[in-house]
């Protein structure tokens, strides 16, 4: 069931999102050659707690970290570790905050130090796809409009949206209905209608190649590209208002 939020509830979610946006900004700025993904994770937790929030991801059963750290071919759910970032690595930081009982969720991907032109084109495609998807977050549109915007942008640049993973509704729970796929499933009009008061975690999850995604290792969390091609992840928490989308993160 899709849960509709009141303006006051969206205001509280915006407070959560503001904390997360600042945390993401600082963590990404700290991502440099030689720092471990576990150090970045601990830094994110310190920032969230200092702001009066709590890490959303630690509320997920069996997950014990504040962030997911997705380096190079890791698509989602990368577990922070003693891995030291290297020059040219692609690192995606995914984090969530719960504040006054309300969750926010965001992720962003950058390249460490050296900026490769092909990788920059790849990452710019993800940013563009997210922006176009957010513009579709308007009353009267459908979830399929969001999915189509992502798929068209990603495929238009020669990359592939991940079909096995989705964005989602968000609120009192980190994951709520509806699912927000990165590609169009069927006809747009058959997907849920977007209504005022909905809040969505819109995610662009895509790969440089056409590779399927598989579990990496045996931790039960980390998902990677089978052919080791790079993956990208961009996400904002977005509220649907009468006037259109409002990015909370």
In short:
This protein has 249 residues and is α+β, with helices and mostly antiparallel strands. It has 4 helices and 13 strands. Helix 1 runs antiparallel to helix 2 and helix 3 (117-135) packs antiparallel against helix 4 (143-156).
Write the layout of secondary structure elements.
Blueprint: H1 7-30, H2 37-50, E1 54-55, E2 67-71, E3 74-76, E4 90-99, E5 102-111, H3 117-135, H4 143-156, E6 160-161, E7 166-169, E8 176-181, E9 199-207, E10 213-215, E11 223-225, E12 231-241, E13 244-247
Antiparallel strand pairs: 1-4, 2-4, 3-11, 4-5, 6-9, 7-8, 7-9, 9-12, 10-11, 12-13
Description of the molecule:
- This protein is of the alpha+beta class.
- Helix content is 29%, strand content 29%.
- The chain is built from 4 helices and 13 strands.
- The protein has helices spanning 7-30, 37-50, 117-135, 143-156, and strands at residues 54-55, 67-71, 74-76, 90-99, 102-111, 160-161, 166-169, 176-181, 199-207, 213-215, 223-225, 231-241, 244-247.
- Strand 7 and strand 8 form a beta hairpin.
- Helix 1 (7-30) runs antiparallel to helix 2 and helix 3 (117-135) runs antiparallel to helix 4 (143-156).
- The longest helix is centred in the N-terminal third of the chain and has 24 residues, at 7-30.
- It starts with 6 loop residues before the first helix and ends with a strand.
